[in-house]
Structures are given as C-alpha cells and as structure tokens.
Amino acid sequence: MKLIIAIVQDEDASRLISELMNDGFSVTKLATTGGFLKSGNTTLLAGVEENRYKDCLAIIEKVCKSRKQIATSPVTMGGSSGMYASYPIEVTVGGATVFVLTVDQFVKY
Ligand code: 2BA
Questions:
Q1: Which residues line ligand 1 (CB under 6 A)?
Q2: CATH number for the domain running over 2-66+93-102
Q3: Is the pLDDT reported for residue 78 higher than 70?
C-alpha cells in the first residue's frame, strides 16, 4: 500500500476530491498553509493499493493546474541600517506537490 500526500491549490481541491472519490479512492482533506507564500493550500491524504496508486497520480496530474501568483518579498536595505523594502515577485505554484510513501501497516479499529 502507498500513502499519497498531495499538496494542491484550494481552487483545485473540490474537483480533485470528487474525481478521486468517483474513482473509488478514499481521501482525507487537510487545510494547510504554504511556508513561502503563507497562504492557504490543501493537503490530501490517500491510502491506496499498490496496483492503483498510479491511477491516483494520473488524476492529480490531470486536475491540478499550475498558476502564477504575485508574492511580496521583504529585502533588507543596506545591511546594518535595519530598513526593509518590499518588492513583488512572480512565482509559479503547483499543479501539485506529491509525496508517495510506502505504508508498513494499515489498520482500522
Ligand atoms: P509555498 O511554500 O507557499 O510555496 C508556493 C510557491 O512559491 C512554490 O510552489 C514555489 O513556486 C515558490 N517557492 C517556494 N519556496 C520558495 C523559495 N524558497 N524561493 C522562491 N520561490 C519559492 P510549489 O513548489 O508548487 O509549492 C506549492 C506548495 O507545496 C508550497 O507552498 C508548500 O506548501 C508545498 N511544498 C512544495 N514543496 C514542498 C516540500 N519539498 N516539502 C513540503 N511542502 C512543499
């Protein structure tokens, strides 16, 4: 069995959950926050059988789109002056950041 951890954008989460569930996958949704943008994203957990995890990955790849976002980056001015200025930077977020872990044991009580 594999545990798929997929970090996706909020905009893609509902459709992704629907498509995964329609295909028979069990999913848990977590509300998470990206460390860099400090804005909300969604992390999905899916425990899937070894012979099906590639189908799960294919759905994630199909549904999750990459998008450009503008982030504000703080930069220090003049080293010891202690002054800060912000400038906008464009980052491409997603489609999805996915970790695939091998599960040692899966039990339900
Ligand atoms: P954030 O950390 O908010 O990152 C959002 C996007 O900002 C990233 O998109 C990337 O394009 C950019 N970014 C992140 N760190 C950066 C840095 N130090 N310098 C410049 N740009 C940077 P994605 O790579 O698609 O990541 C989307 C979200 O997936 C991340 O949100 C984070 O929540 C998660 N993530 C990505 N890689 C991860 C990893 N190795 N471990 C854990 N979570 C990860």
A1: 7, 34-37, 41, 91-94, 97
A2: 3.30.70.120
A3: no
Centroid of ligand 1 to alpha carbon of 87 (angstroms): 19
Q: What gap in Å lies between CA 34 and CA 9, rounded to an integer? A: 10
Angle at 25 between CA 19 and CA 106, to 5 degrees: 155
Q: What is the pLDDT of residues 10-20, one digit of tens each?
A: 999 999 999 99
The pairing of strands 67-77 and 28-33 is unpaired
Dist. CA 92–CA 66, nearest whole Å: 7
Report the 10 Å Cβ neighbour count for 75.
Answer: 9
pTM of the model: 0.91
**What does the pLDDT look like over 96-107, one tens digit per residue?**
999 999 999 999
